[in-house]
Amino acid sequence: xxxxxxxxxxxxxxxxxxxxxxxxxxxxxxxxxxxxxxxxxxxxxxxxxxxxxxxxxxxxxxxxxxxxxxxxxxxxxxxxxxxxxxxxxxxxxxxxxxxxxxxxxxxxxxxxxxxxxxxxxxxxxxxxxxxxxxxxxxxxxxxxxxxxxxxxxxxxxxxxxxxxxxxxxxxxxxxxxxxxxxxxxxxxxxxxxxxxxxxxxxxxxxxxxxxxxxxxxxxxxxxxxxxxxxxxxxxxxxxxxxxxxxxxxxxxxxxxxxxxxxxxxxxxxxxxxxxxxxxxxxxxxxxxxxxxxxxxxxxxxxxxxxxxxxxxxxxxxxxxxxxxxxxxxxxxxxxxxxxxxxxxxxxxxxxxxxxxx
Length: 357
Ligand code: PHE
Hints:
The protein is of the alpha+beta class. It is built from 13 helices and ten strands. The longest helix has 41 residues, at 59-99. Residues 182, 184, 228, 266, 269, 300-302, 323-325 line the site of phenylalanine.
């Protein structure tokens, strides 16, 4: 390059500059702009090479060329960054437009957990009894045989013990333990505790919980749920009991539901009743479910037997009580129209989903 005069070099710089300007304005993408920058100002770039040859010129020529090259560089740098910014903005806009959220696109189904239908029915029943003034109370599922039977006035060897085929658990010292066959032993616990507590009255409780019996068919399971009701005061009548159950069934099924009491027997109540509700399917006119009777058996009930008060440390002459017990699975079958109890415990998702109401 030694033979180049300063004016030829300046011409060359100007030519390179206008060439670069054309390329910049023709660039379609930000990466193209970057390529132009590299090809003119990179290490081996056209303009860089011209400037590298400056050492062959005298001081005056270097000054002249230096001025022009600075000008060219400034001008091109600013065009380059302007164009790059412009193209980058456009590219981003296009990307955003393409990636835009489409609210009409089909969604993804996330299955949601639900309470088991039995748990839902149990909670609903508890809520209704709460409105009727009964406070929830609880007792253990592994229970003393004494509380499950003896203190409830089941006489030793009495046939009533066999009515509820019992799971026995290993003894605790001399105490025989069972899986409770009903929630009634919690009546015993509550009476014993209140007796210690200066016979505090009134008692108005409901006892929801699991119970166990050696039983397994389409309407009986080895484990099921009951709600026990217990009210104790100076006076307590079958009329009060009936009013509470009437309120419950009208709220649990529908306003038109009627109930009736039939005489029955339980060792721990006297008098005792079997409670029927008018059939929820045929409304009392007779169908397959109620075996044409128009009625469904839904609970056991009665006045607390004086013997139970005495066995729990009370003076049966100065106190009265009523009690009832109902099976939640049976109520759930009737409410949800489910024919086989075992479906509740197989836990097939298709069944559980269909049983959600
Ligand atoms: N415990 C009885 C049963 O499980 C039901 C019941 C409870 C009856 C309270 C009367 C009073 O069969």
